[in-house]
Each structure stands twice: as C-alpha cells, then as structure tokens.
C-alpha cells in the first residue's frame, strides 16, 4: 500500500459509529478497476483499513525527485544515476530495476534544453458517488509550447489497458485544474514507455464505465468490516 492511497486527513469519528467516507486516490481507483470478482472487495477493504490506520509508505519518492531534478537542471541523468546509492539497502533492488527505465524515458524527452518542469495541481474528482484524488507526479513544458501532465507507473507488471484508460481519462477530465492545455500521459517507468489517450476512445463510454465502477467501490466500502 503506498502513501498516495491514504494521503488525506481522516475525519473526526464518532465514538459509537465510525464513519469513514469512501475515498480513493487515482492510483487506488485505477488499481481497483483492473481487479475482478472477490479481489475487488478485498482490495477496497485494504484501502479502507489503510485509511483508518493512516498507515503507508511511498518507496519511490527519491526516484521521482531525481527524475525531476535531471529535467529541471538539464543534467542528462546524473541524478538518476546516483539515486540508488542514496536509499536504504532494502530499496536498492527496486531503484536499480526502475532507474534504467527512467533514464530511457528521460532520453525520450529530447534535448534537455528544450523541455522543463511545469507546476501541476491536484484535483478532487467526483466519479459517480466516489471522491477520487487526481494527482500527477509532475508537468512538462516544451520549447514549442506543448505541455504534458505526467503520471508515473512503477509496478513490476506493465499497466493494464483498463488502468491506462482510466488514468488518462481522469487526468484529461480535470486538466483545467491540473495543468491547463496539457496532454495527460502515463509513463510505464520500468520500461520507459509513454502511454497517451487513444483517439478512437469514446469519453462518454469511459465515463459510464468508471461511474459504474465507482458505485460498486462505494457499496463495497460501506459494507467492508474494518
């Protein structure tokens, strides 16, 4: 469980009947939609318990900082090349497996002087009855004026088509708040692959699908015993 899935201040709870309103980060919700059957309820129960405990840890923070530093200071990967030495031994294998793909992604951005960081903002979305935090990792601004809002995927397995579709749609849906006039992208960081919105996709169909998933998520959240 990553800290992104619980990065919200817990509400004041009644001593007799604790009421934890349903909530998910974009990471949590997109992981949920890729699951099927009983695994969905198990996953929602885990998110609820993590929020109740306000527990979690994000092991990728140093890598994100290194990638952003290489982009901002146009250092061509020197921060990424050195970041593995800065983390605890238990995280070194993870950083070794991810940093190579991060360097591939960094190189794919082109000449360092032609791209820089852009400030993004988080957005709180209503997906059906569910509150979902939309939180890209950073924004990019290119020399030609093009902008991108970037979400990173760190998992060992590549993102599923469902996760890609949900992530990009949710970001595009709130781009006016996140980074106006930007294109949403999802970067599979272990492989250095960038995913973009499928121009053939129908936003109305995706919206209906996500609303149904959010309704089921909310029902499971309410019935899950913590």
Keywords:
8 helices, 226 residues, five-stranded mixed β-sheet
Number of strands: 8
Which strands sit side by side, in order, in the main sheet?
A: 2-5-6-7-8
Number of helices: 8
Along the chain, the helix and strand elements come as EHHHHHEEEEEHHEEH
Largest sheet: 5 strands, mixed
Radius of gyration over all CA atoms, rounded: 18 Å
Helix/strand-derived category reads alpha/beta
Give the overall shape. Answer: globular
| Cα end-to-end separation | 16 Å
Oligomer status = single chain
Approximate strand percentage = 15-25%
Q: What percent of residues adopt helix (DSSP H or I)?
A: 40-55%
Would you tell me the overall average pLDDT? 90
Which spans of ≥5 residues are poorly predicted at pLDDT below 50? 1-17
In short:
The chain has 226 residues and is an alpha/beta fold.
Q: What can you see in these coordinates?
A:
- By secondary structure, this protein is an alpha/beta fold.
- Helices cover 43% and strands 17% of the residues.
- The protein is built from eight helices and eight strands.
- The chain has helices at 26-33, 38-53, 61-73, 78-83, 92-108, 161-173, 175-178, 203-223; strands at 23-25, 115-118, 123-127, 130-134, 138-142, 147-153, 183-188, 193-195.
- Strands 2-5-6-7-8 form a five-stranded mixed β-sheet, with helices on both faces. Strands 1-4-3 form a three-stranded mixed β-sheet.
- Strand 7 and strand 8 (193-195) form a beta hairpin.
- The longest helix is centred in the last third of the chain and has 21 residues, at 203-223.
- The protein is globular.
């Amino acid at each position: 469980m990553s800290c992104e899935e619980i990065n919200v201040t817990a509400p004041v709870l009644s001593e007799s009947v604790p009421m934890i309103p349903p909530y998910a980060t974009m990471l949590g919700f997109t992981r949920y939609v890729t699951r099927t059957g009983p695994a969905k309820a198990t996953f929602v129960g885990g998110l609820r318990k993590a929020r109740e405990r306000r527990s979690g840890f994000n092991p990728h923070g140093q890598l994100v900082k290194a990638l952003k530093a290489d982009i901002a200071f146009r250092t061509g990967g020197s921060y990424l090349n050195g970041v593995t030495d800065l983390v605890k031994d238990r995280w070194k294998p993870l950083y070794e497996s991810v940093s190579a793909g991060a360097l591939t992604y960094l190189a794919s951005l082109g000449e360092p002087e032609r791209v820089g960081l852009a400030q993004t903002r988080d957005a709180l979305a209503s997906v059906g009855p569910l509150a979902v935090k939309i939180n890209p990792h950073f924004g990019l601004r290119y020399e030609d004026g093009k902008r991108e809002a970037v979400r990173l995927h760190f998992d060992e397995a590549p993102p599923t088509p469902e996760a890609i579709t949900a992530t990009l749609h949710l970001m595009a849906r709130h781009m006016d708040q996140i980074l106006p006039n930007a294109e949403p992208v999802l970067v599979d960081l272990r492989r250095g692959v960038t995913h973009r919105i499928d121009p053939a996709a129908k936003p109305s169909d995706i919206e209906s699908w996500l609303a149904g998933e959010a309704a089921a998520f909310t029902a499971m959240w309410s019935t899950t015993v913590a």
